[in-house]
Amino acid sequence: MHQVRYFLAVCETLNFTRAAKSCNVSQPSLTRAVQKLEDEFGGLLFHRERNLTHMTDLGRMMRPRLERIAGEAEAARAEAKRLKRLENAPLNVGMMSTIGTNRVIDLLARLRREHPGIKLTLQEDIPAKVMEGLLEGRTDCVFVGTPIELPERCRAKTLFSERYVVAFPPGHRFEAMNGVRFNDLNGEPYVWRHNCEYTNRFTALATERGMTWNDVYSSEREEWVQRMVMSGMGCALMPEHLVLFPGLPTRLVIEPEFTREILLVTVGGRRFGPALDTFVKLAAKFDWSMP
Fold first, then answer.
1. What is the C-alpha separation between 101 and 243, in angstroms, rounded?
2. What is the helix (H) or strand (E) element at residue 95, kind and residue range?
3. What are the angstrom distances between the C-alpha of 60 and each of 5, 54, 64, 71?
4. Domains plus CATH for the chain?
5. Rounded to two decimals, what is the model's pTM?
6. Closest by alpha carbon to 245, among 216, 224, 262, 261?
7. Which of 51, 179, 203, 239 has the most crowded CB, counting CB atoms within 10 A?
8. 38 in helix, strand or coil?
9. Rounded alpha-carbon distances, angstroms, from residue 5 to 23, 81, 145
10. Count of Cβ atoms closer than 10 Å to residue 79 Cβ
11. d(Cα 127, Cα 143) in Å, to the nearest integer?
């Protein structure tokens, strides 16, 4: 690129001395750079006759092409500077579909207020797909919930913990309780969440206690599950911050209680870009204790 820049400077001035001064280099350095370019093209770019310098046919042919190259290089440098200043900086974040928006949305809103130049893309999917996107570089970081087995390459930061609740239709007998024991779900009509991380644990515990799941419906979409519950089709177990509808009654599950941690996961050793570095630091200092 220096050779191109020096060549274009000589095109403008038709004087090697003035061209070297405008490029802030010595004349011998500029001359050698132009000669290397001539070696690349296999011909002279300038004729030098005492105090007169003029372009050859090859030089005139190459000038518009090299001007376009120089223009693209300058545009690339400007774009890199904007990225470093977080102007139009892309950030791709993955999120498990079972993580509620209620807690994370405040972080995203703060990111927007403090760094409006970051262009956030949020990709939601099941755990396996979310982790696949992170490892393959399609996302910069991901939000996941435990229990989950992370590859050794990954690094996780715990953001907050949340308890499990049982959601039930309005007017259900659970409304009179301060907490619902796990055994109280025996025989209740139940709506399964396909992507629930604790499905195997719930099933094993119910079998161990001789309980019967009265399965009525199931869905992979959380809003459908909660609408089914609201409509009186059954109950469902879910993380407390996943509840989407203000009118949906819930109670804490007890005996035993179930909790999970929400993690922000990145790939260890992978260099952070400016937007990701800003986002990770903001998430680390964010007050996740606020309701």
1. 9
2. strand 89-96
3. 15, 10, 8, 17
4. 2-84 (1.10.10.10), 86-291 (3.40.190.290)
5. 0.69
6. 224
7. 239
8. helix
9. 8, 20, 53
10. 12
11. 9
- Phi, psi at 11, each rounded to 5°: -60, -40
Phi, psi for 111 (deg, rounded to 5): -60, -40
Per DSSP, helices labelled H in the chain are 2-13, 16-23, 27-41, 57-84, 101-114, 127-135, 199-208, 222-230, 274-285
Cβ burial, residue 117 (10 Å; 0-12/13-18/19+): middle
Q: Measured between alpha carbons, how far is 164 from 18 in angstroms, rounded to an integer?
A: 75
Q: What pLDDT, on a 0 to 100 scale, did the predictor assign at position 84?
A: 65
Residues of the chain with pLDDT under 50: none
- What is the three-class DSSP state of 267? strand
Q: Which backbone phi and psi does 269 adopt, to 5 degrees?
A: 85, -15
How far apart, in Å, are the Cα atoms of 142 and each of 10, 162, 238, 262? 52, 18, 20, 10
Nearest 5°: the CA angle 159, 163, 166 is 145
> Which residues have a Cβ under 8 Å from the Cβ of 39 and sit 6 or more positions away?
none
The string of pLDDT tens digits covering residues 158-176 is 999 999 999 999 999 999 9
- Token digits for 204? 């094993």
